[in-house]
Amino acid sequence: FQKHGMTSIGYFHPMEDQPAASTTLVYLLAHRDDEARKAGFKAFGQDPDWQAARKASEENGPLLIKGGVKSIPMMPTDFSPMK
Length: 83
Hints:
Layout: E1 7-12, E2 26-30, H1 34-46, H2 48-57
Antiparallel strand pairs: 1-2
């Protein structure tokens, strides 16, 4: 992500007793603005290194679950310590 102007904030999975704990990965990325977010994901999707890594990870079948990746752009609240 960093290569394409995105900052990794953290990677998480639900606790074991939560629904879909073994099939869910949540990650937070920071972007300069919405245009940078769009450009970063476009460049990431076209990156030959990412395409090769994805292909290698799916040699035994796709890793994505039904419904695929869900992307939810968010903004911090006025009272959030993260701006």
